[in-house]
Design goal:
The structure is a single chain. By secondary structure, the chain is of the alpha+beta class. The chain has two domains: 152 residues, Jelly Rolls (Sandwich); 113 residues, Arc Repressor Mutant, subunit A. 45% of the residues lie in helices and 13% in strands. β4 and β5 form a beta hairpin. α3 packs antiparallel against α4, α5 crosses α6 and α6 crosses α7.
Length: 293
Amino acid sequence: MDYSKYEIYGFDSISAFNMSTGYKERSYKMHWHSYGEIILVGPGKTNIYTVSQNTYNLVEGDFVLVWPMEMHSIIDADREKSLVIQFSNAFMNTLFDLQRIMHFYRNLHVLCINSHKELVKQLTDIAYKMKEIFFSDGPDKELKCCMLLMEFMLALDEHRDEFVPEINAGGRGGYTDDVMHRMIMVTEYIKNNLTADDLSQGAMAEIAGISKDYFSRIFKNVTGMNYSKWLNMIRLEKATGLLAQKNLTLTEIAMLSGFQSIPSFNRVFRDEKGMAPGEFRTLFIDGKSTNNV
């Protein structure tokens, strides 16, 4: 089997996990996809990546984190010996803790070996275990790799105080299982009802059966962001998925994603992605037409 296909569009429609290495070209165009990506940077003096609107000059052993639907590119880097891990967004959304971790670390795109030696060593060991299992073509390799992916995310979360010291490293903040289950219920309700008339924080606190102030504190601790920011991210996630459907207009996509107006949709989209929704759609279509470049 050829594992040098860096971008396998659509793998996540049938699988939760994919891995590749050995790609000889040193660059890859700006693009996005619905799945997430973790890159273990290869050797060489030059390893330059862009994620979202930031450019990173990295060294061997660093990690690049690309969360689902983020714009990213490889400007100039060793891709022959780098290791690329790809994971389905649908899989990550199956567990609330994985969702929470993704939201909490949404703005974290680089793990540098020189800054976080203990964590990066631990994550590197996990990545090479994935490689050994995935490339062996043995039984249950996807299941085993997904278990290691969860171990990877758990290790990252256990070191959260290294990245955001002011946020409780315990994650759950001492909340009971009952309270956490209420939060899961609310977040799932929001994702399935983005066009509802009232998705205000007060309304969601009422659904959860807790006070608005308490809801606000829990939500920030669990997701790593305030309620309005998180809601916009969920709407944006919905919109980016709908942009792949050519039969929908941008106005229809904005409305189906819960945005109240086209200007607000364009503003939030541009703030997060660095470009207009139409430009983003064009990149997706072009990427599909040049599959496995």
